[in-house]
Write a structure and sequence with these properties.
heterodimer; A: alpha/beta; Rossmann fold; 6-stranded mixed sheet; 4-stranded antiparallel sheet; 8 helices; B: mainly alpha
């Protein structure tokens, strides 16, 4: 059994070529997140929040460094293996919902499992009922409000019962009242044991997460976080300071 | 026992939701919804392929008609028949040329439809990949949509051609002043040939859009979204 952290990001770097210039999206980032946490990742635009989420979710691979999820190194997986990993272990929630416009709410929830031999159809229905969309199952996204669309997207993220949920600006495109409802839903899911990572600009959303990290220039600059187990996450800067103290001492 | 209406129009919203539970959802539903959503483009592409298939069947039947016509004239050819043989040769070359042109145009229609599909829906296809559907499966969905257009067009064009051949053969439009007309004769192998050529055109035409799909990154398009 693996006793290490649930998510371990170790010296991860990622550069993107933007025309003639190179952008360092992640600059040797280190991060550890325990299972069952709900972590808000905050930082200005271009700080590396989304890149970090994409790396952890297996959407992208690092230039150097490693990422382990529950002891499995995902940074070395090929595209096919990463797709399988995402399908079985990760639920993605996007800012713009990314629902398929021609499919009904229920069909959208079932999209990740449409190629399965025996798709969990009843689970899709139950998830939408749980999201309060019992009467909206047959509606296409165009007939749903922003909050309803995001709840369909959350149901879709949960269809495979993933251990990890990654939400990139999940409240960025909905009103504040609906945002509060969505965050309450996230807390409920977290209470059920799902590990959740939310990249957000919204301080209210971040404030309701159990822990928060701040990212700037591809580094973790502040790790305020306290998990339920009492573990304190140290940022890169804090680690350096601690090392210096040890050396001096 | 209470009698329940099976018509979806007459049942309440609540009942409709529960009726939804009995609907199965899989790649075929996804593809059919996609084809229906882009119906104006589907109709345009499908009718182009149908027209090309129709022309192909027509020219192949003309070729078959010529062969049948000359098969009947056994014996030492007269000067007039020799002249006809020459005409036959020229006509056959035209038939092959036009058939090849039909196939080339079919490749272009499939490629064009496929490229538009992949580029227009890049965010949707990227989302599918992001939520864990593998690239080959996403490619299957794109190929499925293209197949409906391709084989639908071939089917309509071939059936139309088959329906028109007896009429054309009866009318037998006179080309020459001496009353020699175009003979048309439908050979069932034309259907197989039409399907084979359509499949070849489909494979060739879909290779470029599928290549574009493999080159696109789900990450890039999600970032654009």
């Amino acid at each position: 059994m693996d006793d290490g952290p649930f998510i371990k990001v170790d010296s991860v770097t990622k550069r993107y070529n933007m025309g003639h210039s190179t952008v360092n999206a992640l600059n040797g980032m280190d991060l550890e997140i325990e299972e069952g946490e709900m972590v808000a990742i905050m930082g200005p635009s271009g700080s590396g929040k989304t890149t970090l989420l994409n790396m952890i979710g297996g959407l992208d691979s690092p230039d150097s460094g490693t990422i382990h999820i529950k002891g499995m190194e995902i940074s070395s997986l090929n595209e096919g293996q990463r797709a399988q990993f995402r399908k079985n272990n990760v639920g993605f929630i996007f800012q713009f919902f990314n629902l398929i416009p021609s499919l009904t709410a229920l069909e959208n929830v079932l999209v990740p499992v449409m190629f399965d031999k025996d798709p969990p159809f009843e689970r899709g229905v139950q998830l939408l009922e749980r999201m309060g969309l019992k009467d909206r199952m047959g509606h296409i996204p165009g007939k749903l409000s922003g909050g309803e669309r995001q709840r369909v997207a959350i149901a879709r993220a949960l269809i495979n019962d993933p251990m990890l949920i990654l939400a990139d600006e999940p409240t960025g495109n909905i009103d504040s009242e609906t945002a509060r409802e969505i965050v309450s839903l996230f807390k409920e899911l977290n209470d059920e044991g799902k590990t959740m990572l939310l990249a957000t600009h919204d301080r209210i959303v971040a404030g309701r997460a159990r822990s928060m990290i701040k990212v700037r220039d591809g580094h973790v600059v502040k790790g305020k976080a306290h998990s339920r187990s009492g573990m304190v996450h140290l940022s890169d800067e804090e680690k350096v300071k601690k090392k210096k103290r040890v050396v001096k001492g | 026992m209470e009698k329940r209406s099976t018509s979806l129009r007459s049942i309440s919203r609540k009942e409709r939701a529960s009726a939804n539970r009995n609907v199965r959802f899989g790649p075929i539903t996804y593809i059919s919804r996609d084809v229906w959503r882009n119906r104006s483009r589907t109709i345009m592409s499908l009718s182009s392929i149908a027209a090309l298939s129709f022309l192909f069947v027509l020219f192949m039947s003309m070729d078959q008609g010529f062969s049948d016509f000359f098969e009947d004239d056994i014996g030492v050819p007269s000067d007039e028949q020799k002249e006809l043989y020459e005409v036959k040769g020229v006509m056959e070359n035209w038939v092959y040329l036009i058939s090849a042109l039909c196939m080339a145009l079919m490749v272009l229609v499939v490629a064009n439809t496929g490229i538009i599909t992949v580029l227009e829906r890049k965010q949707e296809l990227a989302t599918l990949r992001a939520i864990g559907i593998s690239l080959p499966k996403v490619a299957t969905l794109v190929a499925g949509s293209l197949s409906i257009i391709l084989y639908g067009g071939i089917l309509i064009g071939t059936l139309l051609g088959m329906a028109c051949i007896p009429i054309l053969d009866r009318v037998n439009v006179s080309l020459f002043s001496d009353g020699i007309g175009f003979p048309f004769s439908f050979d069932p192998s034309t259907i197989v040939l039409s399907l084979l050529i359509g499949t070849g055109a489909g494979l060739l035409g879909s290779s470029l859009p599928l290549f574009i799909l493999t080159q696109s990154s789900p990450l890039e398009v999600l970032r654009d979204g």
